[in-house]
Amino acid sequence: QVQLVESGGGLVQAGESLTLSCAARGSVSLSFIGWYRQAPGKQREMVANISSGGSTMYADSVKGRFTISRDNAKNTGYLQMNSLKPEDTAVYYCNADAWVHNTLSEYWGQGTQVTVSS
User: Measuring CA to CA, how many Å separate 58 from each of 29, 53, 55, 73, 87?
Assistant: First the structure.
């Protein structure tokens, strides 16, 4: 059984920082890792992603403020969020492609709430 376990969400004030973690549980090897978010009444949107080789991509709304990274030894992805704004308030989801028994499959985490007050 493969699980992506997210942590690090919370309530912060505008301008503050948070770091989200996404840890893979089970006998897996993470390939592509992505972070998405969904605000109330809005569609889920891509925030950032990182390839197995370390190439990164960011949504325009978070460029220069958020940094995605990974620790392959720990099978964990991270999203460092700086200079948070009220519009960053959303449930953040981790998404990853993972190799399990020579099969590449997609997994989602359960989501973690990030609330930024003004």
Answer: 23, 16, 11, 24, 16
Q: How far apart are CA 74 and CA 5, in angstroms?
A: 13
Residues of the chain with pLDDT > 70, as a percent, come to 100
**How far is 22 from 24, CA to CA, in rounded Å?**
7
Token reading at 88: 């960053």
CA-closest candidate to residue 90, choices 60, 46, 49, 56: 46
Strands annotated E in the chain: 3-7, 10-13, 18-25, 29-38, 45-50, 56-58, 66-71, 76-81, 90-100, 103-108, 112-117
Q: How far is CA 99 from CA 5, 21, 51, 113, in A?
A: 17, 19, 14, 27
**Alpha-carbon span 52 to 19, nearest angstrom:** 20
Q: Which amino acid is at 106?
A: E
Q: pLDDT (tens digit, 9 = 90+) per residue, 19-67?
A: 999 999 987 889 999 999 999 999 999 999 999 999 999 999 999 999 9
Label the pairing between strands 90-100 and 112-117. Answer: antiparallel
